[in-house]
């Protein structure tokens, strides 16, 4: 990841790396919801894969 950041002219500091992880997670969760309709009704999946991470990000735990 650090090499990629260097190639595209981005800083590879912890804050930038955390933001890249969050962007990846958002894309992955959206993809899962698009391709697996059963997740929409699965409260456990939503809780673990969407709400938990959203609280961590929104609560200042990550990318504050």
Structure description:
The structure is a single chain. With 64 residues, this protein is an all-alpha fold. The protein has one domain (13-58). Helix content is 70%, strand content 0%. It has helices spanning 2-8, 14-35, 43-58. It is elongated and about 40 Å long.
Q: Compute the number of structural domains.
A: 1
One letter per element, helices H and strands E, the order comes to HHH
Given the structure, what is the number of helices? 3
Low-confidence stretches: none
- Biggest sheet, open or closed, and with what strands and sense? none
| Radius of gyration of CA atoms, rounded to a whole number | 14 Å
- Output the structural class: mainly alpha
Q: What's the β-strand tally?
A: 0
Q: What percent of the residues sit in helical stretches (DSSP H or I)?
A: over 70%
Distance between the termini: 21 Å
Shape: elongated
Mean pLDDT: 86
Report the β-strand fraction as a percent range.
Answer: under 5%
Give keywords.
64 residues; mainly alpha; 3 helices; 70% helix
Topology:
Elements: H1 2-8, H2 14-35, H3 43-58
In short, what is this structure?
The chain is 70% helix and 0% strand.
């Amino acid at each position: 990841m650090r090499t990629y950041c260097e190639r595209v002219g981005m800083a590879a500091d912890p804050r930038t790396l955390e933001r890249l992880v969050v962007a990846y997670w958002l894309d992955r969760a959206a993809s899962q919801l698009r391709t697996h309709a059963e997740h929409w009704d699965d409260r456990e999946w939503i809780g673990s894969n969407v709400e938990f991470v959203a609280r961590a990000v929104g609560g200042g735990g990550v990318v504050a």
